Amino acid sequence: MQKNLYSGHTLRQVRADTGLSQVDFAKKLGLSTPYINQIENNNRPVTASVLLAIYRVFGTDLSAFEENDLDRMTQDLEEIFADTRFHGTRISKQDLHELATRAPEAARAIMDMYGTMRAYHEKDAGEDDLLQMNASDDGTGSISKSAYEEVRDYFHYQDNYVDAIDRAAEQLAIKINLLADSPKLTALTDWLYYTYSITV
């Protein structure tokens, strides 16, 4: 049985991008204002008919309504609040899911702050292999994610799929004839060598 899709924050963002009030947004979709309000506040799920109406009227990419991002964000928040080094509060999974659903930007800010606090803690403990200190000439510094963490987190919240990269890979596969029966590794390594002088 398919889960109901509660994605009010995404609907609010779509409406904000159009610059429309709830009243005008509802009119364009042929829906009632209270219904849109209930969806935005996660009191009602986003139905297939609503998604189709949004796509038909605004051409919105419906993948934005997928729950996977919220589920992962909730899981990340659970891990953060399970770390009692920085707080002594017990927060339920339901509360964290509510935070991720209703205020995803605030949730991301919490994750960023936690990363910064953890970085300071690990630096003091001599365990800063994941986060590094970027110090300026005047001695001041700021904590930033390592390149590995930046890339990992980016793909994590893109569902490990970036359309532009995927399409470029398909075009490259056609260009260097990776679809042929010949060994693909040989074709790819030969292309890297003759194009970029890279030896694999």
Could you walk me through the main structural features you see in this protein, from its secondary elements to its overall organization?
The chain is mainly alpha-helical. It has three domains: 8-65, lambda repressor-like DNA-binding domains (434 Repressor (Amino-terminal Domain)), CATH 1.10.260; 68-156, no CATH class; 163-196, no CATH class. It has helices at residues 8-18, 22-29, 33-40, 48-58, 68-82, 93-102, 104-124, 147-156, 163-175, 184-196; strands at residues 131-135, 141-145. Strands 1-2 form a two-stranded antiparallel sheet. Strand 1 (131-135) and strand 2 form a beta hairpin. Helix 5 packs across helix 6. Mean pLDDT is 77; it is low at 127-137.
Summarize the structure.
The chain is mainly α and 200 residues long.
How do the helices and strands line up, and which of them pair or pack?
Elements: H1 8-18, H2 22-29, H3 33-40, H4 48-58, H5 68-82, H6 93-102, H7 104-124, E1 131-135, E2 141-145, H8 147-156, H9 163-175, H10 184-196
Antiparallel strand pairs: 1-2
Helix pairs in contact: 2-3, 5-6, 5-7, 6-7
